[in-house]
Each structure stands twice: as C-alpha cells, then as structure tokens.
Write a structure and sequence with these properties.
This protein is an all-alpha fold. It is built from nine helices and no strands. It has helices at 5-14, 22-29, 42-64, 66-75, 82-112, 128-160, 170-195, 202-208, 213-216. The longest helix has 33 residues, at 128-160.
Length: 218
Amino acid sequence: MLLPMPILAALLATADLPADAPIAQLAKVLGPNDLPYAVPIHPTLVHFTIGLFVIAIAFDIAGALYPIEKRIFRFLALPITRGGFHDVGWYNLLACAVITFFTVAAGFFEMLLAVPIPGVTSTIGLQSMETMLWHGVGGVLILLVIVLMTLWRGYQRFVWRRDMGRQVQWLYLLVGLGLFLVIGLHGTLGAELAGEFGVHITADQLLASGADLRQALP
C-alpha cells in the first residue's frame, strides 16, 4: 500500500540508509503536500495556459467578425481595428505555446512526487494511476496541438493571409473551439487528482495519515 509522503519521510528518517541516498535526501525536503515547495506550481500554470488560449481564440473570432462589429465600435467611439484584434490573438497564442511547455514540465515533476490516497476510485471509475497516466498523456497531446496551432496561426499571419483583413481561417477557429472542449474534459482529470485522490493537497494527505490538523497545520 502506498504511504503518504509525511509517513514515508518519518520511516526514512529512522531507516539505516547512507547519508547521501537520493531517496533520503528527497524525503528531507518534502512538506506535507509531498512537494519541496509550499504551493503546487502546475495548477497555477494551467490557468495561464487556459487563459491565454481562450483570449487568443476569442480575439481572433472578434477579428474575423469585425465587419459585423465595426458599426458598434464606431457608435461607441472606440478606436478599435481589425488588425488589433488579430494582434492580440497572435501574441496570446504565442505566449500560450511557450508557457504550456512549463505547464507540462511542472505537471510531470509534481506527478512523479504524487502519493495518492489509496483505495479511492474516481467518479468515472478510474484508479489514481490510470487518472495520472491519462492526464499526463493528454497534457502532452494538448501541448502538441497548441504548438501546431501556433505554427498554423503564424503561417496565416505572415505568409498565407498576410495581405488579407481576416488573418485566420474559419477552420482554424473551429479547431480552437474544439480544443476548448478537450481542455475542459482534460481538466476534469486534474481536478479529480486533487479533489478525490488528494494529490498534493496538504489537508487531505494529513487526514489520510491520521494526523490532527490542529497540530499539524499552523
């Protein structure tokens, strides 16, 4: 049975291990959330990835529909151009592609240190290891799609549709909207890892190990 990391750390502290044993060194720096730092990094970066991608597609949609919208902008005296919408779409997608590499890297690092609460099955019938595998593989595939979409978007911006008012194809926008759905479903797996399996959730891990939260937490 998998032991919560605080218990594992206590056992390693009393074990007869060499001073330079890697597992002993690791156990000394892990907190009750099973991480060497106070707050998980991956969930924060995930929200950057999602936010940047949503903004990128939303502004490109606004740019694509600009002929319909421009009368409203003129009535409101807003100095908005079609190119401005597409600039926001492009730079946000580019930033999304860059930061998602760090999002996936942080996710795999934290997944390697994960100690799920044993004996739990998710609402969709998956065990913890199955959930982590699907979440990890799905994250890599989403990163790949975002990178390919960035290359596609750059080709449209600088080569294919450089001299056109609408910089993006309708197919590109449909793919972006489809990825919204995929990211939402994929995020459900991550939410289950935290909410149901207690991965890197300090209170859940301490409760699973039988600790008194009033004494264990400040």
